[in-house]
Each structure stands twice: as C-alpha cells, then as structure tokens.
Amino acid sequence: MRRLLLLLVIALGAGPEVGLGADASVDNGTAPLAASAAPIRVDVHPPAGADGPEPWTGWIQTALGAVRTVSPDYPVERLTVRLRGVETGGAAVVFGRVRRSAIPALEFYVDPQAELAALNADWRSYHEAAHLLIPFPGNRDIWFTEGLASYYQYLLQARAGMISEHESWTELARGFQRGFDDPQGAERDLRSLSPRMRQLRAYRRVYWTGAAFFLNVDVRLRTETGGRHSLDSALAAFHRCCMDRRSRWDARSLIQQLGELSVPSIWRQEYQALMKGPAEPEIDRAFAALGIGFDGRSVALDPNPRATALRQSISAPGSAGLARRVVDSDDRQ
Ligand SMILES: [Zn+2]
User: Fold this and answer.
1) Does residue 331 carry a pLDDT above 90?
2) Entry pTM
3) What ranges do the domains of the chain cover?
4) Percent of the chain, pLDDT > 70?
5) Measured in angstroms, how far is the CA atom of residue 96 from the centroid of ligand 1?
6) What count of other Cβ atoms lies within 10 Å of the Cβ of residue 88?
7) Ligand 1: distance of its center to the CA of 302 in Å?
8) What is the DSSP string of 10-76?
9) Using the 8-state DSSP alphabet, how is residue 99 labeled?
10) Do residues 92 and 114 touch, judged by C-beta distance below 8 A?
11) Cα of 323 to ligand 1 centre, how many Å?
C-alpha cells in the first residue's frame, strides 16, 4: 500500500506562511485571523490509492481554518491526519474520530476518489477538529465534548462559507430534533445517561442535549453582555490560560474555568438546568432570541435586526473574527 506523507505548515492571516509539499495558502471566505495565530504542522496521510496531496490538504485546511474562527490559538502545534480509504457507498466521508495522543490525530474513513467540494460539504471534519478545542472531559462527561463538537459542526461550515447561514441553522435545528426524537435514553437524566451512552446507544440524545447546553450558554453570553462575551471568546481565553495545564478535567471543572473567564452565573445556571430534568435539547428560549422558528423540517428566520445580528455573530463568514476585534478594543479602554 502506497502512503504519501505530507508535511505542511498551515499559517493563517498575517503569520508566517511556509508550505512544504503543498500550497499552504487558505482562502475559505473567512475574515483574516489574528496575526498571533501560530502555524500548525499537519502531517496528512492520504488514503491508499490517492493520487496526490489534493483534495486532502485543502479539505483539512478548510476545517482547521474554520475552527480557528473560534480561537486563533488552536490548541495543537502538531496534528496528524490519517485518512483511510473505504467503500463509502457514494459518501465522501463515513466516519471520523479524534485520538488524543502526544501528537493528536484526526482519523477519517473516506472515499479515496472524493472531490474537494464533497469533502467540504461533509460536517465530520469540522466536528472532529472542534473536539480539540477543549481537553477531554472523561467518558462520564462525554456529553460535554460531543455537545461542543455538535454545536459547532454546522456553524463552522457556515463560517467557512461552505454552506449558507440559513442551511447551518436548519441543520442545527434538525440535529436538536434528532436528539429530542431519539427513543434511546428518553426520560433519563444526562448525569446517568452520559456514562452509559454507548451501551444504551443513546448517541443522538446525548450529543444534541449537550449541544443545546452550548447553544444556551453562547446565546446568553452574547445577549447578556452586549456581545462582550461569547462561547468563542471564553474558549479563546481558556486556550491562553489553561490549555497547557496538566490537569484532569471534567465537565464541572471546565464549566467552572470557562465561567471564570466569562460570566460564571450563566454557565452555572445552564449546567444546573441541564442536570435537573430528563436529557433532551431545550432550545426554545435560545431560538426565540435568535429569531428562529422551526416546524420539524425547515427553519424560518425572523428578519428583525436584533435577531439577525445575533445569528450573524454566530454563523456569518468572518463574523467571529470581527466580534473578537470588537471585544479586544473594548478591553483596552
Ligand atoms: Zn464527536
């Protein structure tokens, strides 16, 4: 089996840009990122049977560029991407996972003949890359890491300009509906369900109940602080202070730390509300603030300027970078 090892340095924005064996420039429709963004060395192992570095490097650059709209300090300096060619039945990607080894790795099972557009249109690369935004909270709190990755997966696709904002909210709403409709784990609370997710096959319920937690926190942070805080800014602050700390984290300690870096009461209240009832995505209040109506299949987006601005601050290409610059200048005053 022939394996081609690519070493590329992905440098975004105004940072140094060096490419070895691949064109490292990125044009994914997002605003230029902070100049402080450090390059990431990415070793890409294309699937057996692939002809060269493309479309694989372009695909991975798009996903990493999108995740860097959350935090320019993406918490890895080196990353391995392993691609395994399989019979996918026409899909570009059928499976993805993260390995949190000394050099973290993303693994995907892909169609070796997949084209760039089809790869970029699949949510898995954004989901798996988003997992690395936080340390692993442990299997008992699997809801926390899966919830974060699921919350971001479609929004990052929209930030990268790969799907429209309308599409991203539609997919997110449908995800919440899948969680709500999951027959597995109904009536159980998240505290007991999360550690047994695999055994009970309650993936959708756990993933999307977790995603609703992050939606609620994000919307409250943005609306209750006039845009000074957001989930993005809390994660970016976390990377600066705490990502390198050799600690064991769980959902509680992550919530405590992310709260200290933004608005503790919002994180605490949303966590308490989440743990109180049965595990199901509670999105009504957040969707009302966002001006999103959902009938189970399609969304209707309220054109009122306040709701539109809130949605755009979360899903518009480049909006995260703009929001961060606004926050930065506020902090200097
Ligand atoms: Zn995941």
Assistant:
1) no
2) 0.87
3) 6-131, 139-332
4) 84
5) 8
6) 16
7) 31
8) E--TTS----SSS-----SSPPPPPTTPPPEEEEEEPPTT--SSTTHHHHHHHHHHHHTTT-SS-S-
9) E
10) yes
11) 27
